[in-house]
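Hi R.,

Here's the chain you asked about this morning:
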Amino acid sequence: MPITPKRMPFMGHLNELRKRLTVVAIVLSILTLVGYLFSEEIFMLLIAPMRPVIGDQSSYVFDILEAMSNRFRLGLFGAVVVGSPIISYEALAFFLPALKPKERRWFMWTFVASVVLFLAGVAFCYFLILEPSTLWLVEQSGETFELLLRAQSAMTFAMWFLAGFGLAFEVPVVVFYLVYFRVVPYAVLRKNWRVVWVIIVVVASMITPDWNPWSMLALSGAMVALFEMSMLLVRVMLARKIKAQQLADEIV
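And here is the predicted structure, written out as tokens:
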């Protein structure tokens, strides 16, 4: 669907939202059915980093409907990943007309950056975090418990980890808009960096679905590094806005 004009009546906006949600629903439905047919390949790819630890234990189901529901989950997961460009475009096309030309320019750049950062977070988790996190959790069984891993548990664990790391890597985009829209001035963020670091550690511990110190430390370190890099970029990219904010604060 093309991008609509900026000025529309309220009911026109609701109708536009309905149309775009319909497009997203149709795309997800079709891709989910396709993903259902390739659910085995999606499953094998999803848990590949965990294979050295869990072996072939991740294929058990304990309910007659569980295999089918797992395949639909995997199909939906694949649909969201493959269809994310279309979903993002529909969301962008709905909100973009309401932005000013300068805001629209920044929005396009930060939109691209958010996609790249999300994929970077997923790749970081997939190649560096999933295997050691799985190993740490499996070792908690010790000699007391014997692990019998069901497919639903393995795939849900991997999905949560990948999604969590992908969202956590959006820190630079969040920092940019906090400063750009003056929600939190740059000087306040810079002055209270210790508080921000503590918040990052708390958020990292909430995002990771286990108590694995390796995954929490890795995510916290990555988020802190991204925060510091984003502060440097914001300082350069929004130098005029930051200076204007500081002058306004001095006058007040």
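One quick note: The radius of gyration is 22 Å.

Cheers,
M.
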